[in-house]
Amino acid sequence: MPQNPQSASSFDVVVAGSGAAGLVTAIRTASAGLRTLVIESGERFGGTTALSGGRVWIPANGTPANSGDSPELAKSYLRRLFDRRWPEFVDAFVDTAPRLREFVEARSPHRFVVCPNYPDYHQHLEGASTGGRCFDMAVLDTRVLVEEARQVRYPPSYSPITHAEWEEWRFPERIDAPLLAKRFEEGGRTGGHALAAALVDGAVRAGAELRPRASLRGVEEAGGARRLVLDTPEGSETLDAGAVVLATGGYDADPGLRAELLPAGLSVSASAPTNTGAALEISRSLGADIANESDGWWMPMALVPGEELDGRPYPRGLVRERGVPRSIIVNARGERFIDEASPYNEFGKKMHERDEAGECPNSVAWLVFDEGFRARYPFPGLPATGELPEHIRTAESIGALARELGIEPAALESTVARWNRLSEQGADEDLHRGENAYDRYYGDPWAGPAVNLGPIDRAPYYATRIYSGSIGSKGGPVTDTHGRILRGGRPLDGVYAVGNASAFWTGDGYPGPGATLAVGMVMGLRAGDAIAAASTRSAADGR
Asked: Are residues 137 and 197 in the same domain?
């Protein structure tokens, strides 16, 4: 712990972390009249939220696109996915999520726009929806926001495109590049950057104070308050807080904790670089109950040379790229191992799955594609024509490409030949790619009836490495449905955790697009409710 701290100042609430979950808590407590401070360990606000797509999954939301949905259907679906140790969280989430939407729109400039065609990830489960549960956002005009909202981070290669525009355009030759350039120049923003900026604006206008470059290093119980120790550019500082909320994200950006706690073969993370386990360390020091340390939100990823965040290589998640024709993904044996268009969390699980020998045969994987794919479909860092970047391998034959990759040529040749036969007949009998609504959503709607299938038969042939990655970890302190950290099964007075800083009750489940943000933001709101209610009770008791 830092030595010689400066004298303490006092806040009703200190929120450590400036992602969506923590910002929702801060808006709620500041709106209740509580003196609220948000500290951020990085130089810019927004956390992993600002690097994300920014979509939020809200079932039973009452929009026309969601007219066939109900809380009962959503709960039935989630009970089949989420951790059965904590069933009460399913009810808490579904019952609170619609109010979250109302709260965010009332207290910030964020405006939700429903995605009517975006399916849930597990179409085979009872209660799954083919659209209407996921929300994107309207374009945010950042010119009218508070100054702190201009200090929200961006991911590399940011573009202010809406999800509806992606649905309409899909492929490079259809994108309205002048429109997007003009939008960016005029301050229009979308995606996770826009969501984070809107929530920062809402927090400041509600009365919260935001401080960057301030890291929470310790929490001590001091009478009826919490004594917090911070690292700042000026040195160590202490604060007293009636309540502290751990919203610092997970630990998958820390190579040591990733190797210690998360599955073998996991090699990259798209989380904010500041997600290095602060909440886990503090919770352990408090003797909190800890769970789900080996779970995470998984994603197959690509590394594009030169793309960095805070001086470190930053990977690109592969969602849309895996569902289009003229490509397959193989392991080091040259074998397909999963429906390539599968939801990214399921794909990630398969990449670090162990075989009977205890090995992870799919942790090294390659996207194999042909000239037809390159000419039509986008892939991170790959131009449709011209010089190839260094992360793309190429050869004039499948056998030669296999040798480039260290794969037995006959194995890859056999796999590609089999794929071409399946594509010709229009059905993937092996791994069932294209047989559900989610797969088809990311296919090529102009490719014919089998929107996910197409032969790999136009030379030259290409391949690029697919990495097993994460967009967040799920382990940390166990909480109740109000976000209160538990120790020995009982709430710790005044200590909360939300978002990826907590032990997620989702287990290894991932229900649909925007669920990561949704569960974090809902818990942020519920924690804010609990803190405000506790403050009211304390005032009534004269404390």
From this structure: yes
